[in-house]
Amino acid sequence: MDLKNEIKRRRTFAIISHPDAGKTTLTEKLLLIGGAIQVAGAVRSNKIRKTATSDFLEIEKQRGISVSTSVMTLDYNGKRINILDTPGHKDFAEDTYRTLTAVDSVILVVDSVKGVEEQTRKLMEVCRMRATPVMIFINKMDREGKDPFDLLEELEMELKIAVSPFTWPIGNGVSFKGVYNLEKESIQLYAPGKTTLSEMLLNTRDIEDPLLKEHIGEANLVKLWEEIDLADDLFESFNKTLYREGYLAPVFFGSALNNFGIPELFETFLNIAPHPHGGKTAERIVLSEENAFSGFVFKIHANLDPNHRNRMAFLRVCSGKFERNKMYYHTRLNKRMRFSSPASFMANDKNTIEEAFPGDVIGLYDTGNLKIGDTLTDGESLHFTGIPSFSPEILKEVVNKDPLKTKQLEKGVMQLTDEGLAQLFIQQPGNIRIIGTVGELQFDVIKFRLEHEYGAKCDFRALPFVKACWLTSANQQKLIEMIDRRAATIAFDKSNTPVYFAESDWTLKIVKDAHPEVQFHNSSEHHVREEIINDDQE
Ligand code: G4P
């Protein structure tokens, strides 16, 4: 098969949700439909147990398992499907954001009882920034949830995206009867436990169908037709271009646990979701169908085997064909590298692959050469952009507890932050190391790993900051003035960009007002992201 056809048949996406909305259950049902797994429960083992909110040892244990489910690849109806897993735990949100840089679309799961939640909002913000196409699955219709009109309006208001219902629910909770498919004009009856479609499909063009009346009831039917008419007036009709540009989200109602509404979701997804795009580099835009290979690293998984200190770098292929044992160019290090055992992730097993195409994610064994954001190419000097760091919410100073192990500590902190576990900022004078994260859990993990992998001991001193803003200015003199004047609240990230730490939104506003020539950014790649958005919208 040629490159173009390989690209066309690929779909690379992530399933995202606020924890507990049903992401794991939905993933598992998609894998069952696709035949990638035979029994339920295979994905669940990847999930960090809810009781383990601060138990990092549990997370350590899970790391081994999660590498095999980081990417789930399956073949279905001639399509090659790559599902990228994202950590459910909110403390690992940064990892999720980075994974979203490697997908072409997402399915967002929303709990019908809870509606839009904190993580739903944050994840959608990232999707909006990258103009990622979104499909929404409203889950748990077997529970007494919110009214569908209220839910859809909430999605539009809070997630700032237009919605287009593809199915419409008939009741909810104990009175949930099924869904009406607006496109096919058919009703699928809900029968908990049943999974075959044919048993439950009814053609509704015949409104007098006694089966309909029997299963749904006359009053429910009247209500359904009224609601459908109203929904038609209130919500956008589907438009593929608007979906592909990230403005319009098709919505499905169902129950992941009962495997209800999922085949329709999957079928529509395969029909409308975009095939792999290339990417933006600092030098030029790369198209997926270009013959020359290129790709970028979006995730590093360290210490697969603690005895060997090896790591796996996850690389998304952006253009051309990747081949095993071929020399590739590592553009940051200006170095050639060959990979003899690149891994793919078919059916939950790690296999060595011979080749990979755009949209594929491959695992590269690495001894420390690869960092998040690194680009590999056939030879051209390219640097993929759009893999930003986002503002951390917790900032702490690293306190060295064993001066004899200072070198080990420095190396450990450098490597762990290269992995993307947390962000590192250096403050002067004194070379003070400040670690920034979105969750407390990372500090436990860092401390534990520094001790066990590097033999270094440290503590963390809490700092009163809640936000970090990357600073730029067209007027370098003004920027330097600000850095001098506010030295106690300014540090530098790994690429030496100045970052301002704010104690509150209020202090941030005051400081912004005091330095009108300086721009404050919420992420490290503000300029690139803005271009990406403009670009994708063309
Ligand atoms: P997550 O990955 O988004 O965190 O969610 P997950 O799939 O683990 O689902 C969270 C809980 O919601 C699980 O129950 C799961 O069984 C349940 N759930 C998922 N889909 C549905 C649905 O359609 N209807 C209902 N009623 N429940 C659903 P749990 O008891 O917390 O975990 P478990 O013991 O089932 O693993």
Distinct small molecules bound, one entry per kind: guanosine-5',3'-tetraphosphate
Low-pLDDT regions = 45-56, 526-538
Strand content: 25-35%
What is the number of helical segments per DSSP (H or I, 4+ residues)? 15
- What is the number of independent domains? 3
**What percentage of residues falls in helices of 4 or more residues?**
25-40%
What's the story with the biggest beta sheet? 7 strands, mixed
* CATH H-level superfamily title of the largest domain: P-loop containing nucleotide triphosphate hydrolases
CATH C-level of the largest domain: Alpha Beta
Q: What do you see in this structure?
A:
The protein has 538 residues and is α+β, with helices and mostly antiparallel strands. It folds into three domains: 270 residues, P-loop containing nucleotide triphosphate hydrolases (Rossmann fold, 3-Layer(aba) Sandwich); 99 residues, Rossmann fold (3-Layer(aba) Sandwich); 144 residues, Peptide chain release factor 3, domain III (Alpha-Beta Plaits). It is 30% helix and 27% strand. The chain has 15 helices and 31 strands. The strands form eight sheets. It has a seven-stranded mixed beta sheet with strand order 2-3-1-4-5-11-6, with helices on both faces. Strands 18-17-23-14-15-22 form a six-stranded antiparallel beta sheet. A hairpin with a 4-residue loop joins β17 and β18. α7 packs across α8 and α11 packs across α12. The protein is globular, with a radius of gyration of 25 Å. The site of guanosine-5',3'-tetraphosphate has 19 residues, from α2.
